[in-house]
Amino acid sequence: MQEAITSLPDAFKQIDILVNNAGNAHGLHAIQEGSIEDWDAMIDGNVKGLLYVSKAIIPQMVERNSGFIVNIGSIAAKEVYANGNVYCASKFAVDALNKGMRIDLNKHNIRVCAIHPGLVETEFSNVRFKGDTARAKTVYQGYKALQPEDIADVIQFVVSRPYHVNIEDLIIYPTAQASATILHKNV
Q: What is the model's pTM?
């Protein structure tokens, strides 16, 4: 990771805003039926990925005494649901890391925010269901899911607040979704 950062062109080496957007879910199984490979993939991507990228970027923010870190979590960081055990645990870890970062980096004038989306229509379900596109499609049928542009708009809003404003934690659902497990579909 450090090599990737140091190899950036000079115009891009100073990173003022870091958006940690690691998110993958592999499988949807009860804990006793889960795959160790799936668990490793989720923990490696969702937790270690955030840590490794942050470790590479934060020192320059500390040196400048400024910066903004946006950690993209999930509603799974707030509410555990059936068969989401390790994915939820990885997103709970993101939420805890976000809070810890905010505390540790406060004295360095670095803002830290978490954004926790509900259902966003992306390739997420294709990954979760290991390429079963028919099953993945059903996740987003019968309602209007959040779109990547919706999350991008929220990120833009958060990072464009005056520097004395730090939005700590946001949960974003599509209108049809009331919680991690309550979704109104028109089918």
A: 0.92
